[in-house]
Amino acid sequence: KFDELVAQQLAMQAHRNARAARHAPVLTGTGTLTGALIARVPFKLTRAQERVWREIKFDLAKTTPMQRLLQGDVGSGKTIVAALAALQAIESGRQVAFMAPTEILAEQHYRKLAAWLEGSGVGLAWVSGSQGAKERKAAIAAIASGDAPLVIGTHALFEDDVLLPRLGLAIVDEQHR
Fold it and tell me: What is the CA radius of gyration of the chain?
């Protein structure tokens, strides 16, 4: 058991070192979109949400890639924290891919984010496997041109025709298994 634990720790350290050696775009943002979202939502962020948001904001401004797991119960506010991170990346001129494992969950995220961002000028695109050809073609064009800096969808985001030329942040909502 001791050898297994040491091997695991060494593997984790090697992974951390490899990630630290890579370069990531600095996503400092302007605070314009994030501030507007915080003012717009019909609730006040909890202390835990504010703390995690500060940590993520700090990590996004580094030159090393961020890899973070945000855990919480249903309704604990993970989506608002993810939205704030996405907006910081968008404020920095980057695109964001927000992927969910099922179409139902991806559509819930899309509808919630669309409502929160209504009137903000942030373009959203929806990509899923069940999309019609015309709708999919329009979404892919908006993504490729940068008109849709926030892309929400299922694993269909990984398909070859979905090009995110300025991808700065990938958010993966994964259900417990």
Answer: 17
> 119's torsion region: left (phi>0), alpha (psi -120 to 50) or beta?
left
Question: How far, in Å, CA of 87 to CA of 6, rounded?
Answer: 39
- pTM of the predicted structure, to 2 decimals: 0.86
Query: Which tens digits make up the pLDDT trace of 48-62?
Result: 999 999 999 999 999
Element (H, E) at 91: helix 78-91
The structure tokens 């008109």 sit at 147
Q: Characterize 89-112 residue by residue with b for buried, 16 or more Cβ atoms within 10 angstroms of its Cβ, and e for exposed.
A: bbbbebbbbbbbeebeebbebbee
Each residue's pLDDT tens digit, 95-142: 999 999 889 999 999 999 999 999 999 999 999 888 888 999 999 999
Residue whose tokens read 């300025």: 166
